[in-house]
Amino acid sequence: MNKVDVVLGSFYGDEGKGKIIDYLSQNADISVRCTGGNNAGHSIEIDGKKFAFHLIPSGILNKNTLAVIGNGVVIDPRVLIEEIENLKANGYSTENLRISDRAHVIFPYHIEMDKLQEELRKEDKIGTTARGIGPVYCDKFERCGIRIGDLVNKKFEKQLRKNIENKNKIFEIYGHNQVNASDIIIKYNEYAEILKPYVADTVTLLHNAIQENKKILCEGAQATLLDIDFGSYPYVTSSNPTVGGVCTGTGIGAKYIGEVYGVLKAYSSRVGEGPYLTEQKNEIGDTIRELGHEYGTTTKRPRRCGWLDLVALKYASMVNGLTGLAINHVDTIGKLDKIKLCVGYKKDGKVSMNFSTDAEYLADCEPVYEEFEGNFGDISNIKNREDLPENAKKYLNRIEEIVNVPIKFIGTGAGRDAMIIC
Ligand code: IMO
Ligand code: MG
User: Fold this and answer.
1) Pocket of ligand 1 from Cβ distances under 6 Å
2) Which ligand is nearest to the CA of 301?
3) In this structure, are residues 316 and 388 in contact, taking their beta carbons and an 8 Å threshold?
4) 70, 136, 131: which is closest to 97 by C-alpha?
5) In the listed set 261, 295, 311, which residue is the last one of a domain according to the structure?
6) Which residues constitute the domain of residue 90?
7) Most buried of 9, 34, 278, 296 (most Cβ within 10 A)?
8) What confidence tens digit (pLDDT) does each residue in 208-232 have?
9) Its pTM surpasses 0.85
């Protein structure tokens, strides 16, 4: 039986999951998004055209791949429809799109609430993407959420009015504009018409596909250290982007999962607030940002940049059970003269590989670095790991040795094909 492969972010997101997903989905019958919403942003360049996907699995670009938005995803219909229209305008069919009837719907008041809560946090902001992600998951778990099935079957008006009445009370307390239910109902009824043909019981669909020996690829969004349980809480997103979210976000049982690829960059980056031990708030961080074009796909914010942290990577490997690593931007880090790799945390004079997501613990830790030679040169056309320059090999071998997970993919440049498959 074909196993379900999974691609996950290992750190704080933006590891270049899209590139690995793009490669793997060429052989996938079905490509699935499991968690998160349009806080994610995967950009893919095909035939000189750049596509930014926030909700639709990028597998949609292969005409034989079914693209499924799983039940764990939260959907802003306006954004989803924009994505559908953009694909059509560029000559791609969206016939292969399926949306879970159980996925929850983002309404404008979720977005307003996200912004208001950030304001109220004052100097303790999380730095959310302001896409309504936290508030919509709150409604889901509070059990007042509205699901895609309710939307397209036009069974959402009563619940929506009740929700808006309650939210308006909160908005009133904070002197925020009131939300008008009727306007939203008209708009969302229009959205429902457009989305209806795509809605399906994706749990049964995926289960049947497994029985028929179809190849399924699960596309992770966000990343391990942004996980609500395993990340640096509260500076996290409101879902489980780790491997468990694949099961709960799709209805696929754990025994069907095969490869779990952890994607990372040869350096690290983070958007938003929260601890980040190997951050380089200096010329090196600035250089990495420019060389790696580290600006957000979703919010365009400049990303914080720094060295690769193997203590954190080992933790990501532990909580996800990683079976392989995919390292992007090896070409980018190779443009520096000297590269540092964090191989331990020093606390109270002792060096260990003990990771923690506790900001107070981390504040007392100091990263311990090993230094490597850079200047890899142009590696974008290399197709075998053995043909990489010695400096690159030394760096990669050390990562593999410490984390004890084999490297399966090496990103060597910006292009779709600039990758070594090990
Ligand atoms: P991809 O899939 C990087 C971060 C936000 C913020 C925190 C909470 O492109 O890797 P949220 O809007 O989710 O409530 O924000 O999580 N964040 C991401 N950072 N890449 C992402 O997705 C992210 N999705 C959320 O910046 O710090
Ligand atoms: Mg992104």
Assistant:
1) 9, 12-14, 39-41, 126-129, 131, 133-134, 221-223, 226, 235, 237-238, 271-272, 297
2) 1
3) no
4) 70
5) 261
6) 4-100+199-261
7) 34
8) 999 999 999 999 999 999 999 999 9
9) yes
